[in-house]
Each structure stands twice: as structure tokens, then as C-alpha cells.
Design brief:
Elements (H helix, E strand, L loop, with lengths): L7 H10 L10 H15 L4 E2 L11 H12 L13 H15 L8 E4 L1 H16 L5 E6 L3 H10 L2 E6 L7 H10 L4 E7 L11 H13 L3 E6 L29 E6 L12 E5 L1 H4 L4 H6 L5 H14 L4 H16 L4 H5 L1 H14 L4 E2 L3 E2 L2 E2 L5 E5 L5 H9 L3 E2 L1 E2 L10 E4 L7 H15 L3
Helix pairs in contact: 1-2, 3-12, 4-12, 5-6, 5-11, 7-8, 14-16
Length: 437
């Protein structure tokens, strides 16, 4: 055995000290904690791939608009619970420009990041019809969304989409929906952590079944237009960001400022509720909330109870970023395509050293290079691989924590620096020699 960059005993003792029983189930924060401690104890720089945090500067157009709003004294005023009118207008226009879907400004409601948008959406969907009390996840997915349901006491079901792409998706979805208890269907597209991108045919299947079984689709667009295999950054021109909104009226789109605009710190996003769903009256919601329709329950009850609105100055930032993008003055894709370039280089290093990409295709097409990708190693479970890589100064999270049934890890490209490619190359060469296939 060639000595590893970090002594095994050092890492093992830190894992034990953190109280982690099974490294396969270690959370993102726990992995980050052990990596930071191991880096400090050993003096060896870690190649950190566990945290899904933007590694780029915030969009300047947003920063300038927010600073101007603060200078004008906006910080002392409560925001309207429905949102800044300019932001609502620009969100509606942005959806038209980049998804080619018409949503009225009324249904575009600012939230404290998509995290709050999903929390409030879960509350509203799960209370709309007492017979439908369960959320269905098309996994893998963002683990915190399941935590939100745990906090709310709402049941959920889940399946790994790995074996149910294309024509296989309809029967699998219907096996859950036909029970009559599913209130909402949730997925991200592109997907966190696998980076699979659902096709238009798959989205049509989801939309048709949502209509047939009266379920609401929550489409998480945190990584908006980040399928870099095609350029979706030209406003009001195809190709557009694929969306279920073309195939059903029962949809909520969650648009985040965090990744596309690198505006994660200000916690700003927009929840866009389709017009028919926004105005729909559910008997159970009406009885509980004075006859209000779905959209107003979402804003004037759920959001109001959670935070009394969204950061006032951040709404000016989001409005400016959406406007600049739709005007064609700001090409956000040009700013963030570096994630795809990093993924391409990282995949090359890993695969040349006996690793493989776990979620490797969208049907017959190779997976896109983007913010995330997934890796596995022959003969190793998720937990074994994650722990072994820690000895080489590489940190990543196990797919099992995301609802995946596959053995492997999620790799995030956001914090990779130029000098670390050579480090990774050298360390993975040692890894390959120490772990022959």
C-alpha cells in the first residue's frame, strides 16, 4: 500500500469523534466538519466536493440594484406579502422569455429562497384535500425537502428514477398516483444530485398523470437552464428550459436566485403558481382559510405566517437580474458555464482512474456536464468510497442520503480551483494503485 495523503488513523478518529456511526448516512454538514478538521490536523489541502454552494461572485446587476434600494431607505419598510410589483412583473416575463409559458404576475410570489418556497408549497398542497396527504418524490433529490415534510408531519413516498426513464416512467408514477393519496409530485430538473435532465416526453407523462389524478407538480428549477448541452440563455427564442408547465395546469415552478445568479446569500427566489391553480378553490382550504383560493392561501397565510414576506432589498436585486436576463443585457449562462467546464475535467480524472459515472445518461444521451455529477468505484459501497476518499483529502456525500438506490457519491464542482486538478490527478493515481480493480 502506498501511504495516503492523510493518515487513516487521523481521519478515523475524527469520524468517531463526530459521532458518525455509518459514513454512508453522514450529512453534508458532518462530512464538511470532518474534512475541515482533517485538513487542519494534517495540513493537507482538501478538495471539497460536498457542499452545493455557488463558487462564483454574485451577479453584479443584482448587487447594484440591492445597494441602490438600501440607499433609498427601503430597509425600514415591510415588503408587500404578495411581493414587489416590479419583481412579480419581471418574474412573469422571465418565465415567458426562458420557458415560453404564460403566468400572470399575480402568481409569481417572492420567497426567501426556493427552500421557503417548497416549505410553503408543501403546506398548501398537503392541506388542499384531506384525502391527498402524501408527497411523491422522483428521486434522487435534495435531502432537506424531506426534512421539511418531517417537520410538518406530512407523509411522503419516493422512488429512484434510475431504472424508470423514458417509457418506464408512466407505469411507475401511476402505481403511486392510483392510490389516490398523492397531493404533490416533486423533482428537480436538472437534478440534484444526479444531473439527469428529464426529457419533454417524460415531462409530458408527468403532466398528463398529474392532471388525470389531480396532483400538483412542484418543479424545482434551482439549476435553471444549466443543461449546458444546449444554449437556453437567449430570451424569447428556443430552445427553452423544459417544463411540466406545458403539459398540465397543476404546477408550481420554483425559481431560485442562488445558482443561476450566484445570489445564494440573500435568500431570494420566486414561486410561480400556474394561473388556474392560483385561482382554484379547494373545499378543505376554503373551510380552513375563509374561502381563499390556492394562491392566496400560499401567500397570505403560509408565507405570512412564516416570515411576513421576503427581504425587501433582495427583491429589487432579483427583479433587476430577471429583467436584465429577459432584456438580453445579461447572459447568466456565460457566467455559470464554468461549472460544466469543471465537471468535464473532473470526470476525465476520475474515469481514467477506474471510477465511473453512476447516473451517466439521459436515455441515449450522455449526461450533461454541470454543477453536480455522480461517481462510483467498482466493488465499493457508498459509505466505503466516501470514507476511503477522505484519506486522500477528497470529500463528497453519499447518494443514499439523496434517496438514490445506487452505490456512489455526489460530486459538486462549485469550489474546485485550478490548481486542484493536478492534486486530484496525483491523489487518484495513488487511489487506483491502492484499490486495484
Amino acid at each position: 500500500m502506498i501511504p495516503t495523503p492523510i493518515d487513516r488513523q487521523t481521519v478515523d478518529s475524527l469520524i468517531a469523534k463526530a459521532g458518525i456511526q455509518d459514513f454512508a448516512h453522514a450529512t453534508i454538514r458532518e462530512v464538511k466538519q470532518v474534512a475541515a478538521a482533517a485538513e487542519k490536523a494534517s495540513g493537507v489541502e482538501f478538495i471539497k466536493m460536498e457542499m452545493g454552494i455557488p463558487g462564483l461572485p454574485a451577479a453584479r446587476v443584482g448587487v447594484e440594484a440591492q445597494l441602490k434600494a438600501l440607499s433609498n431607505g427601503i430597509a425600514n419598510l415591510y415588503p408587500d406579502i404578495q411581493g414587489l410589483p416590479e419583481l412579480k412583473q419581471q418574474a412573469s416575463r422571465f418565465v415567458k422569455a426562458f420557458i415560453n409559458v404564460d403566468i400572470s404576475p399575480e402568481g409569481c410570489v417572492p420567497v426567501c429562497g426556493s427552500m421557503q418556497g417548497t416549505f410553503a408549497s408543501f403546506l398548501t398542497c398537503s392541506q388542499a384535500d384531506k384525502r391527498r396527504n402524501t408527497v411523491l418524490f422522483i428521486d434522487p433529490g435534495f435531502p432537506v425537502q424531506k426534512m421539511q415534510l418531517q417537520v410538518q408531519g406530512v407523509a411522503y413516498e419516493t422512488f429512484d428514477v434510475y431504472d424508470y426513464r423514458g417509457d418506464k416512467l408512466r407505469a411507475k408514477l401511476e402505481s403511486y398516483l392510483e392510490k389516490g393519496n398523492i397531493c404533490a409530485i416533486v423533482y428537480s430538473n436538472p437534478n440534484n444530485p444526479s444531473w439527469v435532465c428529464l426529457t419533454d416526453d417524460e415531462l409530458r407523462t408527468i403532466g398528463e398523470l398529474a392532471t388525470q389524478y389531480d396532483a400538483i407538480v412542484m418543479e424545482d428549477l434551482a439549476y435553471f437552464a444549466m443543461d449546458f448541452r444546449q444554449d437556453m440563455s437567449r430570451p424569447f427564442e428556443p430552445p427553452y428550459q423544459p417544463s411540466v408547465a406545458h403539459y398540465t395546469d397543476n404546477y408550481i415552478l420554483l425559481i431560485s436566485g442562488s445558482k443561476a445568479f450566484s445570489y445564494a446569500g440573500e435568500r431570494i427566489g420566486v414561486t410561480c403558481i400556474g394561473d388556474k391553480l392560483f385561482h382554484r378553490h379547494y373545499d378543505d382550504l376554503a373551510a380552513r382559510y375563509e374561502g381563499l383560493p390556492f394562491g392566496l392561501v400560499f401567500s397570505t397565510r403560509m408565507l405570512y405566517a412564516l416570515s411576513s414576506g421576503t427581504s425587501h432589498s433582495a427583491q429589487y436585486a432579483m427583479a433587476a437580474m430577471l429583467k436584465a436576463a429577459a432584456d438580453g443585457d445579461y447572459n447568466f449562462r456565460n457566467e455559470i458555464i464554468v461549472y460544466g467546464e469543471r465537471a468535464h475535467k473532473l470526470k476525465d480524472i476520475f474515469t481514467r482512474n477506474n471510477f465511473y459515472v453512476v447516473y451517466d445518461k439521459d436515455l441515449d444521451k450522455p449526461i450533461a456536464d454541470g454543477f453536480y455529477f455522480t461517481i462510483g468505484y467498482p466493488g465499493m459501497t457508498s459509505g466505503e468510497l466516501a470514507r476511503e476518499l477522505m484519506y486522500y483529502g477528497v470529500s463528497a456525500i453519499c447518494l443514499v442520503t439523496t434517496g438514490s438506490k445506487q452505490e456512489g457519491l455526489r460530486v459538486c464542482t462549485s469550489f474546485i480551483e485550478d490548481h486542484q486538478y493536478q492534486q486530484l490527478e496525483e491523489r487518484m493515481a495513488i487511489f487506483r494503485q491502492n484499490n486495484p480493480v
